[in-house]
Specification:
Helix content of chain B: 25-40%
Order of helices and strands of chain B: EEEHEEHEHHHEHEHEEHH
Number of domains of chain C: 1
Number of helices of chain B: 9
Number of strands of chain B: 10
Distance between the termini of chain C: 44 Å
Chains: A mainly alpha (about 350), B alpha/beta (about 240), C mainly alpha (about 300)
Oligomer: heterotrimer
Strand content of chain B: 25-35%
Number of strands of chain C: 2
Strand order of the largest sheet of chain C: 1-2
Structural class of chain C: mainly alpha
Strand order of the largest sheet of chain B: 6-7-8-3-9-10
Amino acid sequence: MINLFLLMVDIGTMYGIFLILASSMELEYGELGIPNFGKVMFFAAGAFTVGALAVRIGTWLAGITWEGEFKTKSILYSTLVSRYFASHPLDAIAVFLFTLFLASIMGAVLGIVASYPAIRLREDYLAITLIAAGELFRIFGRNYDPLIGGTMGVGVPDVLAWLPSGAKEAGYILLSLSFAAATWLILYRLSTSPYGRTLRAIRDEELAASTLGKDIVKYRMRVLALGSAMAAVAGVIYAFYMGSVLADDFNPLKTFLVVLMVVLGGSGNPFGTLVGVAVYILLDRTLAILKHYVVLPFDINYFAMFLFGVLLLLVLMYKPEGIIPERPLLTVRAKFCRREDGTPERKLCD
Amino acid sequence: MANVFEIDELKVGYGKLEIIHGVTFSVEKNELFVIVGPNGSGKSTLLKGLFGLASIKGGKILFNGEDITKLPPHERSKLGLAYHPQLNNTFENLTVRENILLAGYFLDRDELERRLENVLEFLPEIRGFMERKVKTLSGGERQMVAFAMNMIKEPNTVMFDEPTAALSPKMADLIFDRIRRLKTEYGLTVVLVEQNAKKALEMGDRAMLLVTGSIKYLGPAQELLTHEDLASMYLGLRD
Amino acid sequence: MLDTNILLDALVYSNMLALLSLSLTLTIMTLKVANFAHGDLAIIGVYGAYTFLILAHVATYLTLPIAFLFGGLYALLNYVLVYSPMRRRGANFVMLMIASMAIDIATRSMLQMYADVLKLNFKVYSRAFIFNDVVFNIAGTRVRGLVLISTLSVVSLLAILYVLLMKTKFGVAMRAAIENPALAEVLGINVEKVYATSWFLAGGFAGVAGFFLPFRIPTSPDLGFIILLPIFAASILGGINSLSGAVIGGYIVGVSEILGTYLLSQPPINLSTAYRPAIPFAILILTLLLLPQGIASLWSRGE
């Protein structure tokens, strides 16, 4: 019974986190047409912010003096801080909100910085630039110990420690899903508004869109800032949920999975995002369960990634519009002339 | 009398768009058949359709008695039909010699050498820039290379799509001269699409006026030149 | 200050990069989109050679052609099964790019599974494996096999490619089909066959480059992705449509990376060698900012 509950918690929380990431990707790629292959970097920005600051701020609030290296002691101190949080919910919430706020700013700023190359480079040059930047980011996190504990990672205090067990887990799902819902609603509202139509116009026919007087640069900057802030928020929730931040966790595989979710679900359609994330989580958890029942000559995690790679390939080759395709824009209903006998002509009336 | 081309109710277009709306005409052996018309009338599209580079949406093309409507361009080429497009008719980063080699890709060395000699007799100017990359050549020189590439194939019919566009008058005259000689000296059949209607119609035997995808005139070329209404309305001639 | 070992290492690394950058540029010239699975071709090649080594117990360098073959065949498969059909169905730029990423993920995972199987069945190191080098005695000087063979390989492969492209009819057809496939098609040239051949060659070159990896560093399936950045930096520096530029770019990036990493790790900077990718990254950014058409634009009259 408990196992099922924890499974649900895990699925629910991860669904929320991935939905935020996928929504941000859908906004940038599905709507505006910029494939942001550096997605994990912005995700990491949020998580690293939490990793670097949460335990430090926590010990400061709790009045605990820090002895020893950050790298080796962070787990110990984060446990102490969690205990402190258990009886000081306001402090816990404060730490959460503060890191969330800071992370969003960081994400947005990074997004604006990334928009400079995004405007000038063609998509594949942009991709390699962003991937490389993300990797350097990860290497920095991995090697500069004071940031997030280098190769050991850093402990993150439990901001929901003040909730009783059972409610705490539910708290995490609630947190994750509410942020996810908010993010998705932003995506949905933008997508179905004139703003979304402008984004798609820029995506489909940039030259024409620019002649209509739309400042393409500003749109790109804003969308990337928003998308990156969203990804950073996802990173914050992820860090608190995991209770730790490890640099190597933030590798391009995560970006790939988000791309898979968006393409599989259907890019250009917000409902597709909902479906894409769900399908991924389902497949992922199913494989994780199967792991216990099948004996293979290789690690099943590799097999899972192999399947995901092949899956994306199959979608791109045979159903590129995804499970829920983009809805075509309705402009003016075409009127066909009718001949005397009532059959429609093959040309339009004026 | 065997006609080179028998075109019957031909419809040509791209994707869902139909540009030529059912034309019927024929091209006689060894004649210089001129196609003129205002911009956008579909002259280029018609030629592309005859060569197999645009989609045929209806009708039939008979080439020397054979139905080629569904044949791919390379097969039509084998039957002796050559096409000189307006743009992208050479490989710019390759030398002139390499371009001609590619045009005669399937010939063996000796045959290619023999034909090259003949082509150089016909277009001796090319000797001067055989080893240069096409992109270093002037517009007129490039057209000559494209010309040579078609001649290597020793076709019986050549279709030209505005070969003198953007050329200097001197160069244009040179090209026109060679085109005329194809008919008079080599006995080939020539289909010439031209924006420069006056010069083309002076040279031509019969002519066709194409306006928004339909034939507005089909008959002797010089008569179109002197035709009261059509010449001024569509061709900008006569004042 | 700089001992010969560092310089020789730079040479060997650059040899590999030159082959990889050249082959990447070749595939970009045909596909018009960058291939994010390119580094993996090298790893496919080397695992192919390694397997043969395990099974046949021959001298290591004799398996070099196997690496070429495996790399070439895998690249050919990629083209024939994925890229060509997608292109014919009208896939756009970004979709082809995402497809190459999917292929990268699938390939690396497949290699990981293979490494597991290899270890299980043959009880060998299937990850972080190395090849042992030999020393040749040439006219009294001792030359490391790696230096000699990698340099010889690059020189001969480049020579063969040059002759093929410039002096054979098929080579001219290749250059034509890459520049203007529509016109080549009209002339009766089988553009599909030409493109497939260039992918096979590109994969082969990458496989050969991959073969030399275990002589330098412990080789694992993910190495293909790790070297992707320097490969791209070299190709873009060279100019994405220039084969000669790609080779030169490979040497510039390779030497900069090795020498730069070494110098930066010395006092007073003492930077960890883990930050090595920063060098090709810097080259990439500088090229995109200052000379986006690559160094080939310096001598070619533009396209």
